[in-house]
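Slide 14.
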Amino acid sequence: DVNGLVFLYLYVGRYPRNNASRNRNSNKTRWERRKDCNWQTPGFDQDDHYPVVGVSWKDAMEYVAWLRGQTGKDYRLPSEAEWEYAARAGTTTPFSTGECIHTDQANYDGSRDDYADCGAETGVWRERTVPVGSLPANPWGLHEVHGNVSEWTVDCWHENYQDAPADGSAWDGENGEDCSLRVVRGGGWLNTPWLLRSAFRYRLNADEADGLIGFRIARAL
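Slide 15: predicted structure.
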């Protein structure tokens, strides 16, 4: 648990298999989405020990609503601030691992683009997800917060933190912001180390889903 919250990585085996899946188009990255690919068949083999991918922000929100109904517990997507607080685990360095990160600590594309000349370009690229818990946890016990899959947070996208909530709560669209874009964090197996930094933030359309994107849920203790 982290500061009164429990964080859970979403395994394939925890995701309800009767949920409707959605077909996806292609994008402009090195990952190509096919119409026959979804969270159950993301383009590579997965069993129940792998993180769920191919899930949009809207899909993730539908799942936590379903889970709340099934359990009576207040599961939700973490806010962007909560996600970073948990990922940092008390550190102030670029990664919870320190000033650098390596492919024996995180699942990312280590075949290109070193970070700060610290040897992150190891030549290792697994080219897919790894099972949850395969790599060392951060100081607070959370696995794969850097790499493996990028993770949805509940927040609307804002270009900077000006006027952000001071209490770490989600920054939603109550002031009329365009919330068609949502924040993703953590970086994934396709990314280079720069995108795995604790501070790195990115935005995707709430309908976007591919084999790089998953989510982690939280609930109050």
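Speaker note: The two ends are 8 Å apart (CA to CA).
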